[in-house]
Amino acid sequence: MKSSAVKVGMSPVEQLALQQAAEWFAVLSDDAPEASERQAWQAWLTAHPAHQRAWAEVEAINAAFSNLNAVASKSASHQALLHSSGRRQALKMLGLAGVTYLGVSLLHRYSPWQDWLTTLTASAITYRTPAGRTHRVLLADQGKLWLNTDTQVRVAYGWMLRRITLEYGEILLQSGHDPQARPLVVDTQHGRLTALGTRFTVCQEDTRSLLAVYEGRVAITPSQGTAITLSAGQQAYFDQYGVGAIQAALPAREAWTRGILIADNQSLKDFIAELARYHSTRLSVAPDIAHLRLMGAYPFANVPLVLQEITHSLGIRQHTDAQGNIQLLPAA
């Protein structure tokens, strides 16, 4: 077998090639594959260097479990792999011993293999919160997941991987103990975060994501960049190409799990932008008071009360238009 080096930052082309190679392996392992299938496989193999590398990886892994008890059923297994409704049937055909062996072989190999087997073996659950609401989820490994306002995640715990996909919004994750020692990852559109016994928040924005680590360590692997690990007390923005400057993690970033927004010498403009995420109508600040600074802890469950407190403490006023939108203005 090849060495167990981990390959990070794999491109979408390579990820797709590995999945296709696995499916071609199932096709060609049939007792009597059609000549047209062999020709199609050959055309696929020579179409791109990534296909050849992926096929070499499949052959190396196949050599490690060539005596699986499912060799005679691989044609049906291929059909199960191609149709999501038959994924668990595919596992039965591979045999528990084969899946276990495959899991050990691939655990420290390419992450796309882990993703592929997780997709194969896991039943994904989607959780979402509307604007103005938060929610806590107890995960299968006894870890805890908090969803901030207007957030959606997909949780898929499979044979190889515990994977949480942040589709939009913000989460706080406190990892649990997994007897199977499966890696725990959080995917955003900008890259992958691998938890190393930890508690951290992730906020996905349009062009970047923010990771703040409060316990343990978290490895950031941008989609097309170099991996870097943050320790407790650190935070950084990252996009698909790399990780920005490492800064001190702000404890205020996890206060929302307790229903509180903390302003630590924060500008009025930035605080109101955050508060607006928990309100049904638009909140804004007049430019000439946007620079004012705020200190304090505010319960976002009662936005009108928070606005009343802010206007009183800063000596400003608020105006509500016919649509219910609120703007903070200088004192009259």
UniProtKB/TrEMBL annotation:
It holds the Pfam family DUF4880. It comes from the Bacteria. This is FecR domain-containing protein. Residues 19-60 form the FecR N-terminal domain. Residues 126-218 form the FecR protein domain. InterPro entries: FecR (IPR006860), FecR_N (IPR032623), Ferrdict_sens_TM (IPR012373).
